[in-house]
Amino acid sequence: MSSTYGNLLCIIVIILAGITIQIRDTPPLNTYISKNISATKSYATFNEFYPFYLSEHTQKTTRQCHYIGTTLFLLYLLTKPILSIPLLAGGLAAYAIIPFSRHLSTGLSEVVIFLSIYFISGKLLTRSFIKTSIPLLLGYGFSWIGHFGFEHNKPAAFIYPTYSFFGDIHMMYDAIKEQLSLNL
After folding, report:
1. Taking the CB of residue 27, how many other CB atoms lie within 10 A of it?
2. Pick from 12, 21, 125, 182: most CB atoms within 10 A?
């Protein structure tokens, strides 16, 4: 029964987030978009953000830590594919609120929305907070080791959590694409 509630929660969030993303630039929602942009959140789109993201990952060891964390995250999702549903629901909800929270100096609002949806629905679907926590611990654990241990900077996820997740996947895609092009 709890898995039904987890699926229902995810479906509702995905629908509402999808609608919000589609209509957030039109009245009446656009009146709530942040007009005062925080100095720490100058990037409005992922395309603007990605060069900054790469500049925060200049050391090869940092990038390798990210690749390990992202790979383990994805492999774990292959063993527990049901977690991809709350991941999608939480991610879409966090992405949907980005324009409404750009006046805030941190990405805390995105994190709270993502984690609330992810953990509540993930727990309902798997019946385990541990199983739900593992992919995030793997992904962020290795990434943060790279930042704090080698790059000596604060992860971009503290300010741009949703864009940073996209950045992890994109950076790994770029690395694979580059490696493939070197071998061709």
Report:
1. 7
2. 125
Q: Which two tokens stand for residue 35?
A: 């007009």
133 Cβ partners below 8 Å, 6+ apart?
A: 119
pLDDT tens for each residue of 94-133:
999 999 999 999 999 999 999 999 999 999 999 999 999 9
Whole-number Å distance between alpha carbons of 17 and 96 = 6
**Residue 34 dihedral angles phi and psi, to the nearest 5°:** -60, 125
Q: Which long-range contacts (CB under 8 A, 24 or more apart) does 48-52 make?
A: 49/156, 49/160, 49/163, 49/167, 50/163, 50/167, 50/170, 52/156
Per-residue pLDDT tens over the stretch 46-90 = 999 999 999 999 999 999 999 999 999 999 999 999 999 999 999
d(CA 133, CA 19): 28
